[in-house]
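User: For documentation purposes, I need each entry recorded in a consistent format: the amino acid sequence on its own, followed directly by the corresponding structure tokens. There are two entries in this batch. Please keep commentary to a minimum and don't merge the entries.

Assistant: Recorded as requested. Entry 1:
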Amino acid sequence: MIEMFGRKKTVGRSSESVYSDVTKALTSKGIKFNESDAEKNTVYTTFEGDDFPVKLAITVDDELPVLCFNSLLDFQAPPNSYKEILDGLNLINSNLHFGAFILDPENGRVVFRYHFLFAEYVPSKDMILALTKMVVDIVGENDGDIKKLIPEHRFNDPMFG
């Protein structure tokens, strides 16, 4: 059972080591990803969603034992619609068990965020893949509803193509 979730953390286990496990987990399933020199310990990948591609960045935090999953959606909300969009996102979030859709007020972009804390155990490759699938499924299941909140404001991110 412990093997599914990970191995007991040892002293000196670095974020680079966990990051290596993330890349190995994705590679083991043939999942293509990109790395950025600007963003340390971060991989970028894209999956097929129900309505739109699901763009995902997975980061291993340098200071905390956290895997950060961030999916930037291809929608940009106009500032005059923030209240209605936040109301809609809160309704969607109320039905989620893990993570949340947020609206960045500085740029109007919608992001799904889920942070997995691994305090005592380093996540196994199976756990990394299960968390990745969970995040992709959540975004894929809800992006159509989010599009209805922001129908005319698609945004193409050059990082993901």
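Entry 2:
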Amino acid sequence: MSLLSQQEYLRYSRHIQLARFGAGGQLRLKQSSALIIGCGGLGAPVALYLAGAGVGHITLVDADSVSISNLHRQICFVESDIGCNKAAALAKRLCALNSDITVTSIEAMLCDANAGALIEAADLVLDCSDRFDVRCLINRYCLASNTSWLYASAAQFSGQFAMFVPGGPCFRCLFPQAPENPVDCNAAGVLGSVPGILGTLQANQALLHLAGDQYNTSSLTLLETAPLQIQSLGFEKRPDCLACGAAVRNPDQNTASTRAKQAQSVLVGEPTNAAGDCHEIPYDQLQVLVQSEPHSKNHVLLLDVRGAEEHLAFNIGGRNIPLPDLRDHLGEIKQQLATHSAQHHSRENLQQQSEQQSQNRSPNEFEQTTVVCYCHSGRR
């Protein structure tokens, strides 16, 4: 009994005609599972092509909702999808495109709590996110489970992608440190077709890999669209890699110097669960926080890190410092925090019944300053 039905032979006949693909390659696609992290400009074309090609199971992961600013490049969505979760909306499109496959939507961010199980269940992971820390998380769990994964990014008129396979160089071999001035679609803009091109290249590589046409060439492909240029750069394993290097494979050889570098890397590139971490808060909670600030012991400093045009079009107050310029203003922000703290302490002292009561207060009883960076939910 054939494992491909007559209908499937007809549906995928153009694949089966390919000498390097054939019925065997199509069967491998049917039996494979792909995990797509991010359902935006990159994830949309990736998911549609994998579904159309007959990849047996696709898992979509995204906590974001569709916004009107997404529609110029995330063409799997329509206006009626605005406000809906991206993973859920995209899952409906995939099921409508191909009823023979199964699709799971995870309406959450990839994190330590879910990454292990999701990645272990996949034959291939596709990074379609826009965050360095998420890529580091994917890299870590793919190394642990010997799972191949594809990375891609796009911004303005250019983009890049690379594949990482077990035994080869990893993401941190290629990018040992977090970028100092990251460029993303939200801060720098993007031509709508660019993520589509990168996502299609990513999907092409994924289909070849899942069908068994695998080659382990470690290269970073760079795409520039204005003017059109494509370049591939080879890269190798780094013996001192913080994710897959000798010190990680042989903990006894992990020197104090290496441990210091690892600690620095975590602080720069990956979020932890320690106090002082960043957290996302819903827009309605942000409004309550800002409105209650004058009557609260907790001072709020609101920074709008979107572009100037977005800030003028809509804002809820705060200081507008576009994300690419934020590093240049850190000194001013620290001074502003110090000034607010001093002013608040002065007001507190005036409100005390006596100077002695004020002097006896513990420093921990003074207010904590909360810094909120408003970046808008439609960031991908």
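Summary note for entry 2:
The longest helix spans residues 330-351.
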